[in-house]
TrEMBL record:
Domain Exocyst complex subunit EXOC6/Sec15 C-terminal positions: 437-786
Domain Exocyst complex component EXOC6/Sec15 N-terminal, first and last residues per copy: 68-237
Listed InterPro entries: EXOC6/Sec15, EXOC6/Sec15_C, EXOC6/Sec15_C_dom1, EXOC6_Sec15_N, EXOC6PINT-1/Sec15/Tip20_C_dom2
Family note: Belongs to the SEC15 family.
Entry keyword set: Exocytosis, Transport
Alphabetical list of Pfam families matching this protein: EXOC6_Sec15_N, Sec15_C
PANTHER family: EXOCYST COMPLEX COMPONENT 6B, SEC15
Biological process (GO), any one: intracellular protein transport
UniProt name for this protein: Exocyst complex component
Function in brief: Component of the exocyst complex involved in the docking of exocytic vesicles with fusion sites on the plasma membrane.
Superkingdom in the source lineage: Eukaryota
GO cellular component labels: exocyst; plasma membrane
Lineage: Eukaryota, Metazoa, Chordata, Craniata, Vertebrata
Length: 827
């Protein structure tokens, strides 16, 4: 049957092959050779060789080659056709049998398919039932096993769920306890389960998470109280102030059942209350929001204002985890760092009181928190740790206050700072901290306060003295009179009897200065309040400060006014009067200090006021300045003197400049009526002596080389005018001719020359009863030499006149004897 398979007939027309060309014919030949047997390979070999020979393609060879090739192809085609026709019948028979078998197979297939369909349809319900039964039994077995396992696992899962809920709600300490129960009680029962192994592996992580979260809460707490320590301190200081005010009220109005006791752990004032207390609010950070309330509300304590639960939780957690020491060291280290930050004052703290207040609030807030931690925890902080921090804080605070307070020049700011320091000290003392060093430091600030007060009052005194008109205060009615009397202790029965209008003897600066001294004493007293000083110490402080005010500031101000160039005699006279009355008022200042300090002046070691000395010194300086001014005025008048020293005859009256000078002296001494008698007399005597000395110097000065008797007689008229002024008593109180004695030297000298009484002078010289006792031989010789030169130069022919010759000889003889007296006196 295999050999009967028919082969397809293969034929090809020559025309088609010719058209395809030599290459296609060659492929045909190759194909025919492959199907033929025997000589096919040889033909192929000959064909290839012929085709590859180049001569085939040249000339007629190509045509013959193609003809041979065509003939060869036709032979092969015929052989192929014969072969296919020989096997074709067997192929047809096989196909026919195969078609018969296919029909039978198709019938069998349909029968099997129908049988299978019927079988599947009949057994489908049974299979479904069996599958359901299998699944039910499997589920029953699984449920039973699951119930058994869940009975063991449910408590574990419940505990784990409880743990997660506790951690979610930040209840870390209960979560840690739950974790311990879970680890030691429940997990060992189901340890073979994979989820239990996962839980066991997560337990250390959960512990670390709880540890880290609690530490994070602690850090938030520490950061929050660092930022809000000034608020905590502010409320604590307000509470201390309220308590002190209450104590003052109780001490002034004692009654049974005192006020509310000042709680040691209070760190909030009565104007604050808790605003938000939810667990998720700011309380976990350490500070609760507060809002203002009336002062009558009960003051919350530190535990009400500050939520310390983060500290307690973290402490318990670390204690349970066996790391309490680590926690304590960390807490103390962080609080030490915060203490250093709190104790670092701002650079501009000295500029305003708010700067000091914020600084103190932060320190108080810090130690209020630490004090509460000390009393509510066991061992987290101890007394030694607190004392160490307080010693450091005390030293740094005192150093900062010394530095910044030294920049302060406003006494009001220094006083406010003192009150703030006292409140600061009282607040911390209420919490058991020693504050003696703060009060010692306040004594140092007291000295600085005194200096600032002195500078301030120096300016006040300068303004008073500069604005004063240095005229007696006029009063036009009784009301104004009583007002002045109320400001300054002055009593004068004669003045009270005088009708209005009348004048006080002193100017306005007297009551003003007196009241300012009292204000200064009040200011000193304010600083001494609440310093826990005895009455004697307060009295001593006030008296010493007042003495500095009088001896330094007021004295300097008075001296400056007295030494001022534009201060006239009238002003100087009024200053003497004013200082006299201020000196008398010193005893009233003593009484004033005694009344406010309740320390009697007779007490041992009581400091006395130096006001009397201050005002005496000022008065003496004024007196000296009056003397100096008078002398300067006299010198100014004397500069107007224009003597003709060569005059042959004197004038008919005293010189004009001297008449004006005498008139000025009379008017000046008339103003001295309110001065103490001794001052006026001294001023008058000093002026007359200076005038006498100046006239003597004018007569004897070297520029006056020649002098005539006529000029000397004119000079005598001026001296007589001065003597007349002295006799007139310009100032009452001189006895007899005491004032005239100021001119006695001039008078005796002029009488000696005008009367030419040399014989008496030379004979009685050196005797107590000598008529010309005040005439010095040197002075007489100088004046005589001037007259001698004049006689020689102006009397050319005097040598031819006997009288003139005799007079010249007498002058020479007197001069010789005067030189002899001078020489003998020097020996």
């Amino acid at each position: 049957m295999r050999n009967s398979v028919p082969c397809p007939t293969y034929s090809s027309s020559s025309a088609d092959r010719a058209n395809k060309g030599a290459i296609v014919s060659a492929e045909t030949v190759l194909f025919s050779c492959a199907l033929s047997s025997g000589s096919c390979s040889e033909a192929q070999s000959h064909f290839i060789k012929a085709a590859n020979h180049p001569s085939v393609y040249d000339g007629e060879e190509h045509g013959r080659f193609m003809e041979k090739l065509e003939a060869r192809i036709r032979n092969h085609d015929r052989e192929i056709e014969k072969m296919c026709n020989f096997h074709y019948q067997g192929f047809v028979d096989s196909i026919t049998e195969l078609l018969k078998v296919r029909g039978e197979a198709q019938k069998l297939k349909h029968q099997v398919t129908d049988t299978n369909r019927k079988l599947q349809s009949e057994g489908k319900e049974l299979v479904v039932a069996m599958e359901e039964l299998k699944q039910c039994r499997l589920q029953q077995r699984n449920i039973s096993a699951t119930v058994d396992k869940l009975t063991l696992c449910l408590p574990v899962l419940e505990m784990y769920s409880k743990l997660r809920e506790q951690m979610k709600s930040k209840r870390h300490y209960p979560a840690l306890k739950t974790l311990e129960h879970l680890e030691h009680t429940y997990l060992p029962q189901v340890s073979h389960y994979r989820f239990c192994k996962i839980m066991v592996d997560n337990i250390p992580k959960l512990r670390e998470e709880i540890k880290d979260v609690s530490m994070s809460d602690l850090k938030d707490f520490l950061e929050s109280i660092r930022k809000h320590s000034d608020k905590i301190g502010e409320t604590a200081m307000k509470q201390a102030q309220q308590q002190r005010n209450l104590d003052n009220i109780v001490s002034q109005h004692p009654r049974i059942g005192g006020g509310k006791k000042y709680k040691k752990d209070v760190c909030a004032s009565s104007d604050l209350e808790v605003k938000n207390t939810s667990p998720m609010s700011e309380q976990d950070s350490g500070i609760l929001d507060v809002e203002d309330e009336d002062d009558d509300e009960e003051v919350p304590g530190a535990q009400d204002l500050v939520d310390f639960s983060p500290v307690y939780r973290c402490l318990h957690i670390y204690s349970v985890l066996g790391a309490r020491e680590t926690f304590e060291n960390y807490y103390r280290k962080q609080r030490r760092k915060q203490a250093r930050l709190v104790l670092q004052p701002p650079s501009n703290m000295h500029e305003t009181l708010d700067g000091y207040r914020k600084y103190f609030n932060q320190i108080v807030g810090f130690f209020v928190v630490e004090d509460h931690i000390l009393h509510t925890t066991q061992g987290l902080v101890n007394r030694a740790y607190i004392d160490e921090l307080w010693e450091m804080a005390l030293s740094k605070t005192i150093a900062a206050l010394r530095t910044h307070s030294s920049y302060c020049s406003d006494p009001n700011l220094v006083l406010d700072l003192k009150n703030l320091i006292v409140l600061f000290a009282d607040t911390l003392q209420g919490y058991g901290f020693p504050v003696n060093q703060l009060f010692d430091m306040l004594l140092e600030i007291r000295d600085q306060y005194s200096e600032t007060l002195l500078k301030k009052w120096s300016g006040v005194f300068r303004n008073i003295l500069d604005s004063d008109n240095y005229s007696p205060i006029p009063v036009a009615n009784e009301e104004l009179y009583k007002k002045i009397i109320g400001q300054f202790p002055f009593q004068d029965p004669e003045l009270e009897k005088q009708p209005f209008p009348k004048k006080f003897p002193f100017s306005e600066f007297v009551p003003k200065v007196y009241n300012q001294i009292k204000e200064f004493i009040y200011a000193c007293l304010k600083f001494s309040e609440d310093l826990h000083l005895s009455s004697t110490e307060v009295d001593d402080m006030i008296r010493k400060s007042t003495n500095l005010l009088l001896t330094r500031m007021l004295s300097n101000c008075l001296q400056n006014v007295i030494k001022r160039r534009n201060t006239g005699l009238t002003e100087l006279v009024q200053i003497i009067i004013n200082t006299t009355h201020l000196e008398k008022s010193c005893k009233f200042l003593e009484e004033f200090i005694t009344n406010i300090t309740n320390v009697l002046p007779e007490t041992v070691h009581t400091t006395k006021l130096y006001g009397t000395t201050t005002f005496k010194d000022a008065r003496h300086a004024s007196e000296e300045e009056i003397y100096t001014n008078l002398n300067q005025k006299i010198d100014q008048f004397l500069q107007l003197a224009d003597y003709d020293w060569m005059a042959a005859e004197p004038g008919s009256k005293a010189s004009d400049y001297l008449i004006d000078l005498i008139a000025f002296l009379r008017s000046t001494f008339a103003v001295f009526t309110h001065l103490p008698g001794k001052v006026a007399q001294t001023a008058c005597m000093s002026a007359c002596k200076h005038l006498s000395t100046s006239l003597m110097q004018l007569l004897l000065e070297a520029e006056v080389r020649q002098l005539t008797l006529g000029a000397l007689q004119q000079f005598n008229l001026d001296v007589e005018e001065c003597e007349q002024f002295a006799r007139s008593g310009p100032v009452p109180g001189f006895q007899g001719d005491t004032l005239q004695l100021a001119f006695i030297d001039l008078r005796q000298l002029l009488d000696l020359f005008i009367q030419w009484d040399w014989s008496t002078y030379l004979a009685d010289y050196g005797q107590p009863t000598c008529k010309y006792l005040r005439v010095n031989p040197t002075t007489a010789l100088i004046l005589l030499e001037k007259m001698k030169d004049t006689s020689r130069k102006n009397n050319v022919f005097a040598q031819f006149r006997k009288n003139e010759r005799d007079k010249q000889k007498l002058i020479d003889t007197v001069a010789k004897q005067l030189r002899s007296l001078i020489n003998s006196h020097h020996l």
